[in-house]
Amino acid sequence: GAPFVPPISLPAIPPPTPYCSWPQPKLFQSEPSSQPHGHPVAVAKVPAGYKIISGGAKADWPKGEPNGLLLTASYPASATDWYARATSYLDPQEGTVTAFALAIYDPNDEWDVHIFPASAEVPTGRCKAAIDVDQAYVMTGGGAMVRDDGENWVLTNPARLLTASFPSGTGTWCAVSTDHVVPCAGLLNVYAIGVRPRNCKWYPQTSITPSEGPPAQWPKGIPPAKVQSGFSMVGGGAEVNLIGSGNLLTQSYPQAGSWNAEAKDHHWPFVNVSTLTTYAIGLRWSSPAPPAANTK
User: Quick one: CA torsion of 208, 218, 101, 287, rounded to 10 degrees?
Assistant: First the structure.
């Protein structure tokens, strides 16, 4: 008879890689710092299973009081905590600060959310720092923090203050700080947040939509920045367009599907007029186009 031929053992064909299903971001915010204070701090904590992809901060003080509070920090302290800090400066002022976090629900750890940090030292004057996310990641947000020349948290004068924390490109986060009236050396930390899927395919597209308000002593992003149609807002930021002695950030935060921001000039007689640009980061994703039909 015919010789015996053993069956051929073929390797198992792995199942096809599924396409990603991006979870819709949810907005969380801290309670305003409990007691009015000259240097308020707040942290937005997200529940178990959530990961922060962007965030912001909003300083508040009694209406009509001109001194105000200025932002010195709004950044991701971890994947679950967004830290916000503000300060009075030269002119006494008490108030509160609120931290905001946009987060995705990922209880099965299907998404890799990574914080990319960088820092820059400056003796005095304005300081700029920027950081890119790795090419494998899509940038969804970022933040910044200033420290004084003693590497202590900015709780006393002189101080360094934030004038910008914003997306300068689809993969780059930029921050700017400055001293004001009194020279101050310091350190500026900047953070970019990137996301990527662990075990699924996705074809993301990002967009950055700016909105510049009119010149003012207390400029605002009017109207607030909103993403293009068909995109989901995942983050945003703000940039004071510095003129003269400059204006300083007091708010930059997400609310109701848009990005809001405000700034102010500070300390008489340093009256100054600038504009403020807010930015909204949008994300959309899709499966690849189906193969063309065979018409032969």
Answer: -10
What is the model's pLDDT at position 175?
96
Q: Read off the pLDDT of each residue in 170-178 and give the average, rounded to a whole number.
A: 94
Q: What is the pTM of this model?
A: 0.87
Residue range 253-286, pLDDT digits in tens: 999 899 999 998 876 667 788 899 999 999 997 6
* N residues, the chain: 296
Tokens representing 62? 């009694």
Cβ 279 vs Cβ 167: under 8 Å: yes
pLDDT of residue 268: 60
CA 212 to chain centre: 18
CB atoms within 10 A of CB 81: 17
Three-class SS string for 188-231? Answer: EEEEEEEEEECCCECEEEEEEEEEECCCECCCECCCCECCCCCC
Q: Look at residue 142 in the predicted model and tell me its pLDDT.
A: 98
If one compares 94 and 152, the residue with the highest pLDDT of the two is 94
| Residues linked to residue 21 through DSSP beta bridges, in sequence order | none
Q: For residues 248 and 266, give the distance between their C-alpha atoms in angstroms, rounded to a whole number.
A: 8
Residue 230, sorted as left (phi over 0), alpha (psi -120 to 50) or beta, turns out to be left
